Amino acid sequence: MKGLPLVSVILPVYNGGQFLAEALDSVLAQTYPQMEVFVMDDGSSDDSSSIAKRYPTISYHKLAHQGVAAARNAGIRLSAGDILAFIDQDDLWTPDKTAEQVEYLEKHTAVDVVSSHTEFFLDGIDSKPNWLREARFQKPGKNFTLGSSLIRRSVLESVGFFDTVYKSASDHDWFVRALDAGNQIGHMDAIFLKRRLHQGNHSNDTSSVRELIAIHRASIHRKRDQRS
């Protein structure tokens, strides 16, 4: 539709066939009309490819396995939108997410990224993982995550792409770098992302804790360098 900014949606998948169709259905159910969707297959060996190819309106790309950060970066390079959105293979969007957040960015021109609440739900497990605080699990709240956000292309290119050094926390690293660079992140008091908690979540990997420590150490060094 003329006049509306193009939103490029990037969905990296690695052996995520179990949930991929649900994630794609939630993307294609968006009420916003100006979207392009890229599925970046990070070398899957399951049925992710055949599932993605059922959707004629998406752009599917098979990659060598290099990790989620590299898959997202490849999708960014292929995309054309002035606004970027990301969703994981196992998560869901509410239908009004893109439309509401584009409207927010159009009204708040000084905001570089807009985020929203995240609601967690269990799938195939009986209790929440230890890393998730009970209060956050019981009540959706403010949460800077890729899946709950829209990002202006200009700020993503300014901050830089996702760092492929990180296996599971490259998204967190990007937000920390964006904040350290002085970018403004807005927040909407609405639930736009439903995050699935299951046995295969990357955040269950103990290496993510080490990555988070490294990310915040790097942030401290950046701030020191900025002051000197």
Explain what this protein looks like in three dimensions.
With 228 residues, the chain is an alpha/beta fold. The chain has a single domain, classed as Alpha-Beta Complex (Spore Coat Polysaccharide Biosynthesis Protein SpsA, Chain A), CATH 3.90.550.10. Helices cover 36% and strands 23% of the residues. The chain has eight helices and nine strands. Strands 1, 2, 3, 4, 5, 6, 7, 8 and 9 form a nine-stranded mixed β-sheet that branches. Helix 7 (170-180) packs parallel to helix 8 (207-227).
Quick overview of this protein structure:
The protein has 228 residues and is an alpha/beta fold.
Write the layout of secondary structure elements.
Blueprint: E1 7-13, H1 17-28, E2 35-41, H2 48-52, E3 59-62, H3 68-78, E4 83-86, E5 92-93, H4 97-107, E6 113-122, H5 134-138, E7 141-143, E8 150-152, H6 153-159, H7 170-180, E9 185-197, H8 207-227
Parallel strand pairs: 1-2, 1-4, 2-3, 6-9
Antiparallel strand pairs: 4-8, 5-9, 6-7, 6-8
